[in-house]
Automatic annotation (TrEMBL):
The keyword tRNA processing does not apply. Residues 24-160 form the Phosphoribulokinase/uridine kinase domain. Pfam families: PRK. Gene3D superfamilies: P-loop containing nucleotide triphosphate hydrolases (3.40.50.300). It comes from Geobacillus jurassicus. InterPro entries: P-loop_NTPase, PRK/URK. One of its GO terms (molecular function) is kinase activity. It comes from the Bacteria. This is Kinase.
Amino acid sequence: MGLRDRIDFLCKSISAIKTAGRLVLGIDGLSRSGKTTLANQLSQTLQEQGVSVCVFHMDDHIVERAKRYHTGNEEWFEYYYLQWDVEWLTHQLFRQLKASHQLTLPFYDHEADAHSKRIVRLSGSDVILVEGVFLQRRDWKPFLDFVAYLDCPREIRFSREKDHVKQNIQKFMNRYWKAEDYYLQTEEPIKRADVVFDMS
């Protein structure tokens, strides 16, 4: 199934789902699995069909480096539990998606390692798209009406960065890949998703 087929499938699913008010659709998957591309293309297609869409990229809302590096915890723990302020986002983002007219959220600037607050207007939105890694963690899953999971093998996800991975292999193994394995084992996102797209 190619990108166009995935978008068509999700558009039909959105039309078929009956929910009070806005529909919140999650696009989950591990790092570099194609979540952002799918979310952006789906948003564009829905808007062309006259559907009002608001997209949230969870990587826009990570915390500053000092809060997620050298904290005294294991690296995988920092990535999984400290990369985002999970509790704050649960209450100030996810709990507000259905009813709020606008949200004030911190957006992270990677170069400055700082946040700037922006107002996101939700009034008039028919569909909210949320894309990000670890999206089906138990704190956030209850607020998603429908979840698509992009299942892509690690060797494919990191194939374009082989040299970078080799140079930083310990970081990838201890930080990113251990966190991914933990997520797969504890939350079983493939099993819990409403649809799984094979990205291999």
